[in-house]
Amino acid sequence: MTSIAIVFHSGYGHTAKQAAAGQQGAGPGAVLLPIYAEGNLPDSAWDTLLAADAIIMGSPTYMGNVSWQFKKFADASSKPWFSQAWKDKVAAGFTNSASINGDKNGTLDYLYHLAMQHSMVWIGTGMLPSNK
Question: Whose CA is closest to 76, among 113, 106, 114, 104?
Answer without folding.
Answer: 114
